[in-house]
């Protein structure tokens, strides 16, 4: 369960609180619950594919095989964008407690880390860096636990003083829905269980995904409930590092711990997805794209995104890519269910695939996130 949980509880935890609070106000926990529910439904399609297909992808049939290939290409592309997402957050948080907080400074730091990862992947491979993932996961979860305890104490003080805040939503209707579409990447990561077939059987992988999604959903909803009702709108500027300013109010030690966790988590996640995209693109291209070429593509596209988009736009791009991937996985589940005469299940997964496609098309970035 640690592998998918580490992917789900990652970058989203750093940006979701301030973003949902500023955009949806008093309804932020409802939107968070909706995101978690949607993610669990999409995870259901992936779990169905694990149960039905296991490691027998070669027996899917022509349509499902083509969808699986398209799914792998899309996942590789989504990984490339997610690396840009992780490292741009790394750049922003790396400078958040210094006097070098400008967008240019963050872009320069992000670009330097991109070059470092390319150098390591090209010359030595990533095995020398893989141990960082295990350390960062433990540190990150421990700091999140401390963060929640501190926020719960702060919330209790506000509640007892009668100072809870109930901001009206700034985003409603279609605008609010498309913004939520653009946040799918913040609850993404459960699909990693799908690709652990070499180490775990189908039952274990399905259980790992369920438990990871249950626990991450509980953490996210508690987190949003604690943060959504204690800050006045406009009290803090909405930015990728707004959570640091919020935590300064809660407890002086939390910003430093949060930044440390953010740097470790973002770097290890970027290394993992760069490595994953390299192996995936080499596999689906039949060796035509080498892992080195994939690393170069990750760096090239990542640098282009870094210098042309802000973090909130990158979140929307990554969400669209992952929504497209989940849409294809849902289409595979619908195809397999239909072939097994499970008509209602096939219709449900078909509708889920259409919804994910809509998210891929209409998902948008939050505005004003400088």
Could you characterize the architecture of this molecule?
The protein has 370 residues and is mostly helical. The chain has one domain (2-362): Amino acid/polyamine transporter I (Up-down Bundle), CATH 1.20.1740.10. It is 74% helix and 0% strand. The protein is built from 13 helices and no strands. It has helices at 2-8, 11-24, 28-53, 62-94, 103-123, 131-160, 173-181, 202-227, 242-250, 254-284, 291-308, 311-339, 343-362. α6 (131-160) packs parallel to α8 and α12 (311-339) runs antiparallel to α13 (343-362). The protein is globular and about 60 Å long. 51% of the residues are buried. The mean pLDDT is 85.
Beta-strand segment tally: 0
CATH superfamily, by name, is Amino acid/polyamine transporter I
Q: Tell me the name of the CATH class.
A: Mainly Alpha
Q: Strand count, sense and closure of the main sheet?
A: none
- Please tell me how large the radius of gyration is: 20 Å
Identify the CATH architecture. Up-down Bundle
Q: What's the number of helices?
A: 13
List the helices and strands and how they pair.
Elements: H1 2-8, H2 11-24, H3 28-53, H4 62-94, H5 103-123, H6 131-160, H7 173-181, H8 202-227, H9 242-250, H10 254-284, H11 291-308, H12 311-339, H13 343-362
Helix pairs in contact: 1-8, 2-3, 2-8, 3-8, 3-12, 4-5, 4-10, 4-11, 4-12, 5-11, 6-8, 6-10, 9-10, 10-11, 12-13
């Amino acid at each position: 369960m640690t592998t998918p949980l580490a992917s789900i509880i990652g970058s989203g935890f750093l940006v979701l609180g301030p973003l949902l609070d500023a955009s949806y106000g008093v309804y932020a926990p409802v939107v968070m619950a909706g995101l978690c529910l949607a993610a669990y439904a999409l995870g259901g399609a992936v779990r169905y594919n694990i149960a039905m297909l296991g490691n027998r992808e070669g027996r899917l049939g022509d349509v499902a095989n083509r969808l699986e290939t398209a799914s792998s290409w899309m996942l590789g592309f989504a990984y490339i964008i997610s690396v840009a997402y992780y490292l741009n957050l790394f750049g922003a948080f790396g400078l958040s407690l210094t006097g070098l907080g400008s967008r240019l400074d963050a872009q320069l730091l992000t670009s330097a880390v991109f070059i470092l990862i390319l150098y390591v992947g090209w010359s030595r491979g990533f095995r020398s860096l893989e141990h960082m993932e295990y350390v960062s996961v433990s540190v990150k979860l421990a700091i999140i636990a401390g963060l929640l305890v501190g926020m719960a104490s702060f919330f209790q003080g506000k509640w007892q003083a009668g100072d809870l805040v109930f901001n009206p939503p700034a985003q409603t209707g279609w605008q609010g829905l498309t913004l939520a579409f653009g946040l799918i990447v913040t609850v993404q990561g459960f699909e990693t269980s799908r690709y652990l077939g070499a180490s775990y059987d189908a039952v274990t992988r399905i259980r790992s995904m369920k438990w990871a999604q249950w626990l991450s959903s509980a953490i996210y909803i508690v987190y949003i409930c604690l943060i959504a009702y204690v800050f006045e709108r406009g009290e803090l500027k909405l930015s990728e590092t707004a959570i640091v300013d919020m935590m300064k109010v809660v407890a002086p030690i939390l910003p430093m711990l949060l930044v440390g966790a953010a740097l470790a988590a973002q770097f290890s996640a970027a290394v993992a997805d760069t490595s994953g995209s390299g192996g995936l693109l080499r596999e689906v291209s039949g060796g035509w794209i080498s892992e080195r070429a994939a690393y170069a593509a990750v760096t090239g596209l990542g640098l282009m995104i870094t210098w042309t988009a802000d973090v909130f736009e990158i979140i929307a791009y990554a969400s669209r890519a992952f929504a497209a991937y989940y849409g294809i996985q849902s289409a595979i589940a619908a195809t397999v269910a239909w072939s097994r005469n499970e008509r209602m299940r096939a219709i449900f997964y078909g509708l889920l695939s259409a919804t994910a496609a809509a998210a891929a098309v209409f998902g948008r970035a939050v505005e004003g996130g400088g």
